[in-house]
Amino acid sequence: MILLGIILLLWVCSIRAAGARPPSYAAWAADSAIARGQGNGLDSNGQPTVSYEHGEFQWALRLLYERTGNKTYYDYIQKGVDNVLLPNGTVGGGYSAVQFQLDPLRVGPSYTATKEIKYKTAADEFRAQLDIHSRTAQGQFWHKIQYPNQGWLDGIYMGEVFYAAYTQMFQSHNQSAWDDITLQFTLMFNNTIQTFATTNETYLGLLYHGYDYSHTAVWASPDRGHSPEIWDRALGWYSMALADTLSILPSTHPGHKSLLSILQTLAPRIAAAADPSSDVWWLVMTEPGRTLNYFESSGAAMFVYALLRGVRLGYIQDTSGVLVGAAKRAHQYMVDNWVVDHGNGTMDWTNTVLVGSLDGNGDFAYYVSQPDDLNDLKGVASFILASYEIEQLPVDY
Ligand SMILES: *[C@@H]1O[C@H](CO)[C@@H](O)[C@H](O)[C@H]1NC(C)=O
Ligand SMILES: *[C@@H]1O[C@H](CO)[C@@H](O)[C@H](O)[C@H]1NC(C)=O
Ligand SMILES: *[C@@H]1O[C@H](CO)[C@@H](O)[C@H](O)[C@H]1NC(C)=O
Ligand SMILES: *[C@@H]1O[C@H](CO)[C@@H](O)[C@H](O)[C@H]1NC(C)=O
Ligand SMILES: *[C@@H]1O[C@H](CO)[C@@H](O)[C@H](O)[C@H]1NC(C)=O
Ligand SMILES: *[C@@H]1O[C@H](CO)[C@@H](O)[C@H](O)[C@H]1NC(C)=O
Q: So which residues are the signal peptide here (predicted)?
C-alpha cells in the first residue's frame, strides 16, 4: 500500500515535471515558439525566408539572452541567421534591394545581435538599400515600391530599428544618418497624427495607419492624405520602434529629444485609449465598441512593451503610476484570456490578427474582415516583449 502510494506520488510528480513550464511568461512563450520551430529563418516549407516576424522574434530572444545569459536563445538567433544567409555572407531567402521594401530590413538587427563580424556583409547589403530607397519629396522612405509616396507606421519599426542598430555599430559618428532616422519618425508623426474626429470616429490624438504624400491612394484623406482608421498593430509597431530606437540613438543628438517628445505625447493617449471594461485595446481604435470590432492581442502586447520600456528607461515620467497601472492590467487580461496552457510545458497565443494593410481601401470593414491566427509570431513575439518588461518591474509596483 505504502509502496503503491509512493509509486503514485512519483508518477504524479513526473507528470508535473513533464508539464512544467518556466515561471517566466517571456521564457514560456519563447520556448513554446521554439518548440514549434517558429522564427528560425525558414518558411513552413523549410525554405529560407527574410521575414520581419522572424526579426521581431529574434529581437525578443536577444533581450531574453541578455537578461538570462541562456545560450539557447543566442544559438537560436544565430541558427535563424545562418539559415537565410548564403555562404559568402550575402542575404538569401528571396531578398532583393530594388523592391524597396522596408519589411525585410527588420531582420537586420539579428546580424548585429550576435556581434560577429562575419555577418557584416549582410548588414551592409541591407544598409545599401537605404541609400537607394525611394523617398517622398519630404524624405520619407516609401513603404514599398508598389506603394509610391506612402509612409506606413509599420515601416518605421521595420526600417528604422535596423538603421539605428547599424549606425550604432558601424558609423556611430554619422550625424546625417542619425538626422535621417529622426526625420523618418517625425515625418510619420506629423503626417498621421489625428487632429480632429471625423464622422463616427473617436478622437484619440493617436496616429492613423499611414499616409500618401501624393494624396492619390483611394484611402487618402483629401486634406492631409492620411488613411481612415487607427489600427492597433500599426500604432504598436511605431510605439515599439520609438522605445527601441531611443535606447540606440545617442542622447547627445537632437533627434533624441524629438523622439522623446513624440513618445511622451503618445504614451498617455495610448493608456487612455484602453477599453475601460477589459483594459486592452480595440483592433480599430477609432471605432470602439462597433459591431465586429474586437480586442486584438498583438497591438495590446506591443503597447505594454512600449509603455513599460519607456518608463523603465526613464523616457516617460509616470509619477502617478497611470502608465504602469494600465500596462499591468492589460498584461493580466492577456494571461487570463489569450494564453492557453497545454499542460505539457507549452502554451498557445490567441487573438492576433493575421494582416492589416493599406493595399485596399483601409476602412473599418476591411480591418475587421481579416482572420485571426493562432500562435501568430507577430503576436507571440510581442507577448514575449511585454512579459519581458512586466517581469522587470520592481516588486513594489
Ligand atoms: C535555457 O533555456 C532553455 C529553454 O528554456 C532551457 O531548456 C534550459 O534549461 C535553459 N538553460 C539554462 C542554463 O538555464
Ligand atoms: C554570393 O553568392 C551568390 C550565390 O552564389 C552570388 O549570386 C553572389 O553574386 C555572391 N555575392 C558576392 C558579393 O560575392
Ligand atoms: C552617413 O549616412 C548618410 C545618410 O544615410 C549616408 O548618405 C552616408 O553615406 C553615410 N556616411 C558614410 C561615411 O557611410
Ligand atoms: C513636424 O511638426 C512640427 C510642429 O508643427 C514642426 O516643428 C516640425 O518641423 C515638423 N517636422 C517635420 C520633419 O516636418
Ligand atoms: C456612421 O455610423 C452609422 C451608424 O452605425 C452608419 O449608419 C453610418 O454609415 C456611419 N457613417 C460612416 C461615414 O461611416
Ligand atoms: C503540447 O500540446 C499541444 C496541444 O495538444 C500539442 O500541439 C503540442 O505538440 C504539445 N507539445 C509538446 C512539446 O508535447
A: 1-20
- 15 in a structural domain: no
16 belongs to a structural domain: no
If you compute the radius of gyration of the chain from its CA atoms, what whole number of angstroms results?
21
Q: Which ligand is nearest to the CA of 21?
A: 1
Please report, rounded to a whole number, the percentage of residues in the chain having pLDDT higher than 90: 89
Domain count within the chain: 1
What is the per-residue pLDDT for 19? 63
Q: Over range 141-163, report the average pLDDT.
A: 97
* Ligand 3 centroid distance, CA of 174 (Å): 6
Give whole-number Cα distances, 328 to 26, 279, 307, 352, 397, in Å.
Answer: 15, 9, 10, 19, 9
Phi, psi of 67 (to 5 degrees): -80, -40
* Cα 84 to Cα 76: distance, rounded to the nearest angstrom: 13
Give 165 Cα–ligand 6 centroid separation in angstroms: 36
State how far the Cα of 136 lies from the Cα of 150, in Å rounded to an integer: 8
Whether residue 291 has its Cβ less than 6 Å from ligand 5? no
Domain containing 32 equals: 24-390
The residue assigned the cell 470590432 is 293
Q: Mean pLDDT across the chain, nearest whole number?
A: 94
Q: What pTM was estimated for this model as a whole?
A: 0.94
Q: Are 262 and 189 in contact (CB under 8 A)?
A: yes
Residue 10 domain flag = no
Asked whether 104 and 126 are in contact (CB, 8 A), the reply is: yes
Residues 6+ apart with CB under 8 A from 182: 249, 253, 254, 255, 258, 259
Q: What is the spatial distance between Cα 340 and Cα 192, in angstroms, rounded to a whole number? A: 36
Q: Give 31-84 pLDDT, tens digit per residue.
A: 999 999 999 999 999 999 999 999 999 999 999 999 999 999 999 999 999 999
- Atom 9, ligand 4: residue with shortest CA distance: 186
For residue 199, which ligand has an atom nearest its CA? 5
Instruction: Determine contact, residues 193/205, Cβ cutoff 8 Å.
Output: yes
For residue 207, is it within any domain? yes
Residue 84 Cα to ligand 2 midpoint, Å, equals 13
Distance, CA of 52 to CA of 248 (rounded, Å): 19
Whether 31 lines ligand 1, by a CB cut-off of 6 Å, is: yes
If one counts every other C-beta atom within 10 angstroms of the C-beta of residue 68, the result is 14
Q: What is the CATH number of the domain that holds 272?
A: 1.50.10.10
